[in-house]
Amino acid sequence: MRTSSLLLLVASAAIAQAGPLGPGAAAPALKVANIVKGKQVNLAKGVHVVEFWATWCGPCKVSIPHLTELAKKHKGKVDFTGVSVWENGDDQLGQVKKFVAEWGDKMDYNVAFDGEAKFMAENWMTAAGQNGIPASFLVKDGKILWIGHPMSGLDTAIDQVLAGTFDAAKAKADFDQRAKQAEAQQKMAAERQKQMKPFTDAIKAKDGDAILKAVDAIPAFSEMASYYRYMGLSQIGDARADEYGKKLADDANVPAETLNSIAWPMVMDNAKKPNYALGLYIAERAAKKTEMSNWMILDTYGLALFRNGQKDKAIEVQTKAVGLASSAQDADAASRKELAERLELFKKG
User: Which residues touch 335 (CB under 8 Å, ≥6 apart)?
Assistant: First the structure.
């Protein structure tokens, strides 16, 4: 994700919680509003993977090629169905259709849309305590055998089911253990949110001094104090935010992705208070941290260079970003098009 927001500061990670649906239970009906690609399958017979995703979900985009590979590997033995859930916007079906069309053969399995009734989201995801996507369910002859991330054990589970060596009892025990761990994580997240309340209250009040005071008083902020000072102050447009933004750029321990999320809003087209010089300073350090190998960070760096009048260097960096994105699994067709269009704008000046 490019932009930063207060939601990124206060939202806890999506985690699983204990629910009535799990390995060993009968699979709910595969009741969707629309079949966008492929066919409607019958879960009562054969081996199936039902995977949940959304057009806005970055990790889902990473897992799509993997699911396609598995679908091709097990063609004729396992049916794969991706179900779009939790979509946003007015024309949700339209955006799902557009997404699937743009991915083409890279998303080569059955695709369905949950729809306004949200039957799949409620009767599968919520019932199984799955609050994050992508999430996949492995089903055989109408019974759920395994639940988890499609890139964390699904391929092994499928191989074992087909070979007749799948340990259903172990799968259930593993799932139950993850649910217990997730419950503990949720309690920790709730405590963290409670600790952060003075910080979020200060932002709502647009009180810069209160923001700085709150950061210093929250133990969880100690390792990334400069980051939270910057984020809090930038949310309210306090000029002191730039000071902490520069400190972050100079901190060897701050991840490149964090710097990128800070630099992008500074140089993008609709920046309310653009600071092109500082944006370039931060973007350049982010690019160097990744040794100029991340297409999204280079895109930010290229735009920062262009904003600062360094046209030739911007074209050079953006050209590399376009090249990297062309083969990156996390770059969809829309992102590649956006990068290419930005490169043409740079060339035109």
Answer: 296, 325
